[in-house]
Specification:
SGNH_hydro_sf, SGNH/GDSL hydrolase family protein, 8 helices, Rossmann fold, hydrolase, hydrolase activity, alpha/beta, 6 strands, 310 residues
């Protein structure tokens, strides 16, 4: 597979905090099918990961308690005009990278996909004391196995969290992990969906009220980027967030207190108890089926536990 753009080929990349590009580069793209003759070459898409890929933060307006997310959105676009297109989503909220490896890789291989998206490691990177290089080494073993399918593999780097209230302090760790993701992608001829360069994600409206997951607008924006990266024509229009509302210092602190009570404290409590938001949650589309097949339509996955644990 030909991928445009330069990848870094060193074994371990350390990186530094000050890695913001002076201008957002163009997305790296895959040379896919000629849009004049075929929309894309894929028929069996499997999505792997955690709450990001499950779609947390993007509630389905037509199905209360269920989620869509960027993966469902791109699956719908890929299915349009593609005969026999099938989609599975094995992602489960709260999963760490080794859990994704142990629970999702083998089922994914059995589904015989020709397109795989994998976003894993984010929940590890945000944990205090975690090692982004070690997390990337686990990612490498996962991609090595997935590459045996011959499928197109899309990996994700993390967004630039400089301006986010919760995760700004781990910006350096995210940058280190991102460079390792590029190294892994280069090694196995995978594609990188570049969220770090997606500057729109710095807007507050792109994030859910829990400040850890993306909002519906954020998922929509990421879906557009992934389709553009794959060089797939699509009907997802760009949507600009509303101008931010001016708030006083006092109003901002009240919002912080509400967020801490509803999201931060429950997350800390679950960590102390060794629990996860993904406990007793199963994949919303475990079988690879036509988009409106017999198991769960896009937007599946019920809200059986709180979302605020990543």
């Amino acid at each position: 597979m030909d991928v445009t753009g330069q990848f870094i080929h060193n074994e371990d990349v350390t990186g530094t905090e000050d890695t913001t590009p002076s201008a957002a580069p163009e997305y790296e793209t895959v040379e896919g099918a000629d849009p004049a003759h075929a929309k894309h070459p894929w028929q069996r898409y499997v999505a792997l990961g955690d709450s990001f890929t499950e779609g947390i933060g993007d509630p389905d307006p037509s199905r209360p308690g269920y989620h869509r997310g960027w993966a469902d959105r791109i699956a719908q676009e890929l299915a349009n005009g593609t005969e026999n297109f099938a989609y599975a989503n094995l992602a489960v909220r709260g999963r760490l990278i080794r859990q994704i490896r142990d629970e999702q890789i083998a089922p994914a291989l059995e589904l015989k996909p020709d397109l795989i998206t994998l976003c894993a490691g984010g929940n590890d990177v945000i944990r205090p004391g975690s090692d982004p290089d070690e997390t990337a080494r686990v990612l490498d073993t996962m991609v090595q196995l997935l590459a045996t399918t011959g499928a197109t593999i899309v990996l994700f780097n993390g967004p630039d969290v400089r301006d986010t209230p919760v995760m700004g302090s781990i910006r350096g760790k995210v940058a280190i992990f991102n460079e390792n993701v590029r190294t892994v992608a280069a090694r196995y001829d995978a594609v990188v969906a570049d969220m770090w360069s997606l500057r729109e994600l710095t807007a507050k409206e792109m994030w859910d009220e829990d400040r850890l997951h993306f909002s519906a607008l954020g998922h929509h924006t990421i879906a557009r980027m992934v389709l553009d990266t794959l060089n797939v024509p699509h009907d997802l229009d760009p949507v600009q967030p509303q101008p931010p509302v001016e708030r006083s210092w006092r109003e901002a602190r009240v919002d912080d207190a509400v967020w801490a009570r509803h999201h931060l404290f429950p997350w800390v409590l679950r960590r102390l108890r060794g629990r996860s938001s993904g406990d007793n949650i199963t994949a919303k589309r475990p079988n690879i089926e036509p988009l409106f097949g017999g198991s769960m339509p896009p937007g599946g996955g019920s809200e059986e536990s709180e979302e605020s644990t990543p």
